[in-house]
Specification:
The structure holds 2 protein chains of 2 kinds. By secondary structure, chain A is α+β, with helices and mostly antiparallel strands. Chain A has 8 helices and 12 strands. Chain B has a two-stranded antiparallel sheet. In chain B, helix 1 packs antiparallel against helix 2, helix 4 packs antiparallel against helix 6 and helix 6 crosses helix 7. Classes of the chains: A alpha+beta, B mainly alpha.
Chain lengths: 261, 419
């Protein structure tokens, strides 16, 4: 074999191995499969919150903590309820002590730093409760931000965390515009609401939906037009939180006030 | 049920008014140190490149020093991240399964590219020394065990290139120039990318601005030059003091340590001033722009900047860190001591700038109607309050100097004696 032949053959060999390699790196089979699965999936989970029905009892928060083994005494929680109060003289208050785990049973507003303020019933102009949870965004900022791919989106639209792979950098916590994420005190990994994925995929309701005695919370499948939740979302006036971030949140609210962020 | 009720961040976060239950200051002191450290790395490299690439002759003495210092700092920068991660044992996941939609994921690529450039440049600069050391030890007959190890060590450093003829060394010099030239954009990228990590967090009203990487880069160059100036002057004075003491002890004549050329420091100070002015302008532009456009987040940001963080922002960062050094450096008849003091103030100011970005960015709630106060853990009572407390930061600050002490033995940075 002459040198020329050798070089020619080697060039061909390199090209032959390089082309398939680049082919795969451009297409990324995993990504492709995930995309196909998402398109094929007959389910897109969405949540509906009717704020008019919420009384701020906090049963949903307790149920969630027990179901998902979030330490009961920590202030962090996968779901929480906020209380908004506007007085007749135009002052605005909002609080959510311990995520409303114990319910709003007192007229004292939690101002933080150990301070409270009492609002008497006849001072109140407007008051309401807003339950919150992960919005399971269509374009989740947390999934984009995870440097190791420990947070991912399932084909049916739920963002999950792989506790065995999370490095605990906290970038997803910073990236979430809704404050839905925190570090689990025991596993030290990023933690968030999963719509109770372990339950809904078995035909059960999320723990918070089951626990709500007033029907303020419900879950449905957006890809099923006959689903009662889908019907409400598609025919009634609903809104989402912080649409300006472009994450396309999938928790829809009835009766959302401008003040709620 | 899990027992421990305290979640990460709760130990040092105080909440005021309406803050969401999951909100805490999750990124604390180590994340303040991270951009500070990488900034020093990039800045020191740029300073050395001013000589190698742009041929600023006055900087010859400090250039070599800056490059070796940048190399020692380079190893301390990832330490901050390891101390910050809740699962540092999984840090390798960033390299094994990088998720490239995340700004952090490219850390491995950028970091190792930069590290290899600095290593190559250093190798080319010190190759002659490695070869000479190796050959000298080779010539020794009947080597002791230590000498054998030394011989192996220096020979390994040569990587088999023993040609130190005049032409080869000239070619090396050209290669150094090229490496330094490639190194500048990479160093700036290394730090600009840290700015991008913050600037691209759309959920954070204070961080999200395309100016962030640019502000980070200019302040990085400022901090790198400042650190080199301080260390250079302080090291020289220590050496002088040691030499004088030794002479006094042995009652011999002080052999003396070469004086620092004031011209070198003056040129360095001029570059420091130029980048400092650029950095301040950009930061003020950001502040003015936010106040002028006054979008929804401004009410919350204004109370953070002008009320809650008034002292760290206007006194510590702009006052001590920017205004005083400007006065010190611009006053006529600059002395070594004044330059060192000004540079030390600048360093402090840059640290406060990082602080105000990282901690300030978490000082307000996502609701814009609540605030969070950071209580720096001083006395550690568990591993977490050590890592993210003042002692963790001190560890990170000490490491580069310790490393530098050892690396300096292999790669000496003292200015060549003048003929």
């Amino acid at each position: 074999m002459t040198r020329r032949e050798f070089l020619e053959k080697m060039g061909l060999g390199i090209a032959a191995t390089a082309i398939p390699a680049t082919f795969f790196s451009v297409v990324k089979p995993k990504q492709l499969f995930a995309q196909v699965a998402a398109e094929k999936s007959k389910v897109r989970w969405a949540f509906l919150v009717d704020t008019y029905k919420c009384v701020g009892c906090g049963m949903c928060v307790r149920a969630c903590k027990l179901e998902n083994e979030i330490p009961y005494d920590t202030s962090a929680t996968r779901t929480w309820v906020e209380r908004y109060v506007e007085t007749k003289d135009g002052r605005r208050f909002a609080d959510s002590p311990k995520g409303a785990r114990d319910g709003f049973t007192s007229p004292l507003i939690d101002l933080g730093m150990g301070k409270t303020q009492e609002i008497k019933a006849d001072e109140v102009q407007k008051a309401f409760f807003v339950p919150k949870l992960c919005n399971q965004c269509e374009d989740p900022a947390c999934v984009q931000a995870c440097p190791v791919g420990a947070t991912y989106q399932t084909p049916d639209g739920v963002a999950l965390v792989d506790r065995t792979w999370c490095i605990g950098c906290g970038y997803c916590i910073m990236a979430c515009p809704y404050g839905a994420r925190f570090f689990h005190p025991a596993t030290h990994t990023a933690e968030k609401c999963t719509f109770c994925y372990h339950r809904i995929t078995k035909g059960l309701q999320p723990a918070c939906v089951d626990a709500c005695a007033f029907g303020a919370r419900s879950i449905g499948n957006l890809k099923d037009p006959e689903d009662p939740v889908t019907k409400i979302i598609s025919t009634e006036r609903v809104s989402v939180l912080k649409s300006e971030f472009g994450t396309k949140p999938q928790v829809f609210y009835i009766g959302l006030d401008e003040e709620v962020r | 049920m899990y027992p421990n009720p305290l979640i990460h961040g709760e130990a040092w976060t105080l909440k005021e008014l309406f803050v969401l239950p999951n909100e805490n200051i999750y990124w604390s002191l180590q994340i303040v140190c991270y951009p500070f450290m990488t900034g020093l790395v990039a800045g020191a490299f740029v300073l050395s490149s001013l000589y190698h690439v742009f041929g600023v002759k006055q900087l010859k003495d400090i250039a070599r020093f800056a490059l070796v210092f940048s190399f020692s700092l380079l190893f301390a920068a990832p330490m901050t991240l390891l101390l910050h991660l809740l699962h540092p044992e999984r840090a390798f996941n960033v390299f094994s399964t990088p998720h490239f939609t995340s700004a952090i994921a490219s850390f491995g690529v950028i970091f190792f590219t930069y590290a290899s450039i600095v290593a190559t440049e250093l190798w080319l600069l010190f190759r002659k020394r490695f070869v000479e050391k190796s050959l000298a030890l080779k010539a020794v007959t009947g080597k002791s065990f230590v000498q054998k190890i030394q011989y192996l060590f220096w020979t390994a450093l040569t990587i088999g290139g023993f040609d130190i003829s005049h032409e080869t060394l000239e070619r090396d010099e050209k290669a150094v120039k090229i490496m330094a030239g490639i190194g500048i954009p990479v160093a700036l990228f290394l730090h600009g990318y840290v700015g991008f990590i913050f600037g691209s967090v759309k959920a954070n009203a204070l961080w999200m601005t395309p100016l962030m990487p640019v502000i980070f880069i200019t302040s990085a160059v400022v901090s790198g030059i400042a650190l080199c100036t301080v260390t250079y002057i302080v090291m020289n004075s220590i050496k002088k003091w040691l030499s004088a003491r030794r002479a006094a002890k042995t009652r011999s004549i002080d052999a003396g340590v070469a004086n620092i050329d004031l011209g070198v420091i003056k040129t360095t100070a001029n570059y420091l001033l130029a980048f400092l002015v650029a950095a301040i302008s950009l930061e003020l532009l950001d502040l003015v722009f936010r106040g002028y456009t006054a979008v929804k987040s401004w009410d919350a940001l204004r109370s953070v900047i002008y009320v809650h963080d008034f002292i760290p922002v206007f006194i510590l960062q702009y006052g001590i860190g920017d205004l005083i050094p400007l006065i010190l450096l611009l006053s006529p008849r600059l002395s070594l001591r004044r330059a060192a003091i000004a540079a030390a103030f600048v360093l402090f100011g840059i640290f406060m700038m990082r602080w105000n970005v990282v901690i300030g960015g978490q000082a307000f709630s996502l609701t814009f109607s609540g605030f969070m106060h950071y209580e720096l853990p001083i006395i550690p009572h568990d591993i977490e309050t050590y890592k993210e407390g003042i002692f963790g930061a001190l560890t990170v600050f000490t490491v580069p100097f310790v490393l530098f002490y050892f690396i300096k033995k292999i790669l000496p940075v003292d200015p060549e004696p003048k003929a």
